[in-house]
Each structure stands twice: as structure tokens, then as C-alpha cells.
Amino acid sequence: MERWIEVLVEEMETLSLEERCEFLTQGDLQYLGVGTFRFVFALDDRRVLKCARGPYGIDHNAREVVYFKAMPGAPLAQVLAWHSGYEWTIMERVQTLRELSQLGRDYKPTPAQWERLRKSASYTQDLHSDNVGLREDGSLVIVDYGFATVSKE
């Protein structure tokens, strides 16, 4: 990890959850959005920082770390680093289908691609254009699987 990210992580460690969210939203990081339980910031063009907004966000971060580690080869965005208490995670940055559409680069997944995602994540209510990304190699991955119940099928 680059030194500036290490410094950012060290700074975040000194702050409460509420202070951390305020610190990040006031800083120089590109704000990508907020979900029900987490803020998401771009660290660079390859990584994002997901910061929990409260206990449920911590649960979602923990779930993503656990599932990623337990499911090698599954179509999940990579978890690269995390806080020991899961207050934040650093993950692979993948453009979502919605982002591609907004850039005028619509991508329509094939039925086989959707099926692979559905088999990897036994939930379907959260497989949508904000939570599915397209890697540069053309493979689809789930970028937000905090709600997931992952199966090994």
C-alpha cells in the first residue's frame, strides 16, 4: 500500500466512526456515493474505500471480507485491506454497469454472465447496475455484496 494510504489509515484510526465519516467527506478523496450503511470514496483508479456509517455498515464490511476470503474464484470485487474491527475496507475499484451507462458505454450482460453471478450469490434482490461491475478483462463481478448470502454452488 502506498505511504499516503497508510497515513490516511493511521489518521482514521484516531477518529470515532462519526468523526471518520466527517473527516473523509471533508477531505480530498473523490466521493463516489453513499449507501444505506456506508460511504464510498475513490482512493485512485484501482481502489475504493468503504467506510461504515454505523454498526450495520460494519456488518456489511465484515461480510464482504469473510465472503471474499471464503470464496476464491467467485465473481466478487477483491477486498484488499480492512480495519480489524471492519469499520472500513479497501476494495478493488470496478466500474459499475450504471457508471458505464452514464459514460455512454452501455454493457448488457449475457444470460450466462447473470447466471454465474446468481449462482455465486444466492440472493437476487441486490444484483443490479449499481452493484455489478465490469472488469477490463470483460468479466462481471459483484462490487457490493454486504447484503449477500453467498453459496458455494
The secondary-structure element order is: HHEEEHEEHHEE
Radius of gyration: 15 Å
Distance between the termini: 33 Å
CATH homology-level superfamily = Phosphorylase Kinase, domain 1
CATH class: Alpha Beta
Provide the structure class.
alpha+beta
Shape: globular
Number of E-type strands: 7
Residues in β-strands, percent = 15-25%
Number of domains: 1
* Mean pLDDT across residues: 87
> How many DSSP helices?
5
Major sheet: size, sense and barrel closure?
5 strands, antiparallel
Low-confidence parts, pLDDT < 50 over ≥5 residues? none
Please list the strands of the largest sheet in the order they lie side by side.
1-2-3-5-4
Helicity, as a percent range: 25-40%
The CATH architecture name reads: 2-Layer Sandwich
Topology-level CATH name: Phosphorylase Kinase, domain 1
Written account of the structure:
This protein has 153 residues and is an alpha+beta fold. The chain has one domain: Phosphorylase Kinase, domain 1. Helices cover 35% and strands 20% of the residues. A five-stranded antiparallel beta sheet has the order 1-2-3-5-4, with helices on both faces. It has a two-stranded antiparallel sheet with strand order 6-7. The radius of gyration is 15 Å and the shape is globular.
Task: Name a few traits of the molecule.
5 helices; 7 strands; 153 residues; globular; five-stranded antiparallel beta sheet; alpha+beta; two-stranded antiparallel sheet; single chain; Phosphorylase Kinase, domain 1
